[in-house]
Amino acid sequence: MPIHTKDDPSFESSKFRTLRGQFDRCYHEISRMAHNKLRRESSATIDTSALVHEVYIKMQHQHRLPRDKQQFLAVAAIVMRRYLVDYARLKQRQKRGGDQVQLTFGTLNQPVYTTPEQILKLDEALKAAGLKDKVVLIMGGAAVKKEDADTIGALFGKNKEEGVELAKKAIAEKK
After folding, report:
1. Alpha carbon of residue 59 to chain centroid
2. Distance (Å, rounded) from C-alpha 50 to C-alpha 46?
3. pTM for the whole thing?
């Protein structure tokens, strides 16, 4: 087999063909390995063929190709394990609310700084959760523009004193 360098235009296509050939030759072993790893996982929601295909996709990004079948299977096992760990982390993050917007409440002497994108994300999250009409948003201070507050229907106070007065008024109206 000829040796290709990264400067050679056929490098990527030869790398792909070599990887594809190695993968085809080892498909059954990789599939069996994936099945065994998934069997040991407590709550795997991914099936064997999906895991095998993820391994193939991830292995395409390897800079160096394995020298032989044994090394190829060892690299596939590492890639598979890393994928399963990342997949478990993603599931845990979603389970613990990591895919939700996290709100930070600041005290009056510790302002919370946000970007316009974060403000819009908060508005979308409140709408999605059905809470938009159940909460009163109060924004203000030097870091926030009145236009930003108006965009999401929040009350605007120029400073913390105005913010406190707006909060008192909103609480009184809810009673």
Report:
1. 21
2. 6
3. 0.45
